[in-house]
Structure formats: C-alpha cells, structure tokens
Amino acid sequence: MHYRVFLLNISKALVLISAAVFLFSCTSKERTDQKKSSGLFPIYQNGKAGYIDKSGKIVIHPQFDRVVADFSEGLARVLISGKVGYIDKSGKIVINPQFDEDEAWDFSEGLARVRIGSEWGYIDKSGKIVIHPQFDDASDFSEGLAKVRIGDSESGKYGYIDKSGKIVINPQFDDASDFSEGLAKVGIGGKYGYIDKSGKIVINPQFDEAYSFSKGLARVRIGSEWGYIDKSGKIVINPQFDRASDFSEGLALVRIGDYKSGKYGYIDKSGKIVIHPQFDLASDFSEGLALVFIGSEYGYIDKSGKYIWKEQLW
What we know:
Distance between the termini: 26 Å
Organism: Thermonema lapsum
Number of strands: 31
Helix content: under 10%
Shape: flat
Low-confidence stretches: 1-15, 17-35
Protein name: WG repeat-containing protein
Radius of gyration: 21 Å
C-alpha cells in the first residue's frame, strides 16, 4: 500500500512512514507492483478516516474507523465497527462491512479474494461470491490466473485457477508467485525457476531466491548476491549486490553492504551504477523522482542523483 508524499511540508512523520513503506516494497518477499493511482489520499480527523484530493480538498468526509488499503480498481477497503467493507470514490459503501481485516483483499481483474471460515474464494464488485471458498490459500488474479494452495502451509502445494475457478495448472509446487509478463516464479525443492501459463517449466529451478519478471528482467539471488536474468534464464547483470529491486523508469535500487550499514544507490539495465550508493534509505523512482534519506536529512532526487528538494528531519 503506497501513500505518496503529496505535500512536501505536510508532515515529517508522513515522510518517514512513506519511506518505510517504500523500503518494505523493495525488500518484501514478493513485491506487488499493481494498480494504485486513485488521486485520493487518506486523512484522519477526530479519530475518523476520509480522503482528500491533491489540492487538499476533502472529497470523502472522515467517517470510517480506518483506511485498510488504497483504492484498487475503483474500490477501497475501509474498517467500520471492526469489519472490512468496500467503498467507491464517492465514499458510498458498495460492499457491506462483513470481513475481518485479514479476510478480504483488494480487487484485481474484477475479483477480490476473501476468506470465509478457513477457506478462500472470490467475490465480484457487487460482493457476490463467484468462486466458492475451497482453497487453503489464494492470491490476486494476474494475467487471468490466480495462485492457490491445496493443503497446509507446511506440506500443501500451489497451482493456478482461472476466473471460473477451474484448476488449470495442477497444485505441484512448494512455492509460487503471480504471473507477470507471461511467467510465474515457482519453488521446487528449495530452488526457484519459472513456468509459463501452460505450467511448463521454462527456466529450471536453480536460484536461491527469485522475484517476478518486470520490464523483461527478474532479480534473482545466487548465494548471498543479487543479479538479474532475462526471460531465457540468461544472467544479464551478474550477481553482485546485497539487495536489489525491480527496475522502475529505467533504474533499479540496489544496496551495497548489509541491512544495517549498507548504502543504497541505482543501476541502469546494463548493470552500471549511475547513482553512487550513498543513501541510508531510498525508494524506487516514480514520475522521475526518488525519495532518499541520509542521516537526518531527506529529500527527492532526480535521475542524475541531483536533489530537487531536501530538508532536515530534526
């Protein structure tokens, strides 16, 4: 969930929160680069949540206990009296609050996964159940397919269903990701490779860790170092980084050094370092800018690494 820093001087605390969210997106187990640009931003007044637009105008009056997630495909999850429901951009409740917080997720390709009892299924935007709860775990739909698990988290296997709920790739994988650019990461015996939509293995499991393809490249870990492969499985940027993110606007965030003392910088698609690792925290580039931190100083840089704005946190 990305809450953008839309007014630079609105709050130093808000900037810190945004940085933490950005950093998490770069280091999380499976990144989801979806959807979300609604033009609306959550606010809290007198203990209630609502939304403003980029001008600061209140467009949805604060009335909800909490915003659970940003808008996705026109709907947002909100908490009302301890239950999650969905609102549209006018603030109208379109799916009544009925789910616990971990039981309902964002809409993707017209469907949202929900848990009823111990099993997962899918609802449409009217709240109607269209795929009956029957899976032990499930993910969002991506490129027409959704990852599901049959069995418990220890011994269960992952496969894929289509939007009718039909299993189209039999559960057989120890781990799996959503489809991205026609391929999905799968885990077999502690190693990761990639399958196509027929379920055929097209890149043999060989990596210690791997992520989905983004803009033709996927980041993979061999041993302790990260690099990038293309869709043939060829290594195009040698593993050499202690952490790496997907490419965004032609650049990728990488870290040299460990989590506590390492520094973040940026590479291009040839693997060349174009912005020297110097930042304690940093985000991916979005609309030509990246949020960066050095000590108590934070600001936005452009793709040359030049600050276009900065300020002291304390």
